[in-house]
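Entries read sequence, tokenised fold; example below:

***
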Amino acid sequence: MAQQGPNPIEAYQGAVKQINSAMAAVTANQLNSSTPCAEWTVQSVINHALAVQSFANAVLTGSEADYSAMSDVSHPLPTEGAEAALKAITDTTLATLKSIDMAAVVETPFGAMPGGQFIMVPITDMIIHTWDLTKATGQSTTLDSGLSELGFNVMVNVAEGGRKMGAFGDEVSVPETASFQDRMLGLSGRKP
């Protein structure tokens, strides 16, 4: 059977590359800067991004996944540095993605679903938080258009549930003709 939709491995690699570039440009004096992600500093967003990827790998491998760790973001960055920590966890998660059957069902806090479908949520998290980091630190906020389209399509399906869980703010209205990036950001409660 032919694969439907984006290739999860390629999408994951693209999202990792994009957020890594954003993290690499963050300076130490920007870590306490506020971000579009309400109540979180740049450091908090980085800690969250790392925790989400650990969570994703745990779900994909059937290990115990600590959902609460994704909100526990007020601690210092890992001693090895954000980029090294990101590389370690995303390399591990990528190896997991390459080793599993994407159609195999995994248990998630959002219900049982194929692993290839589940990973799109952590990918979208990386895409949106890349924008948060770039916006907060004065970098270019233009995201990869293909990743933005993927993120928009995921957000259409998860935004309402995410709002109920407190993960997203109220939807920000953007024109129907807006880019996928702006529509994705609007669904996530961000003003593009």
Q: What stands out?
A: The mean pLDDT is 94. The two ends are 38 Å apart (CA to CA).
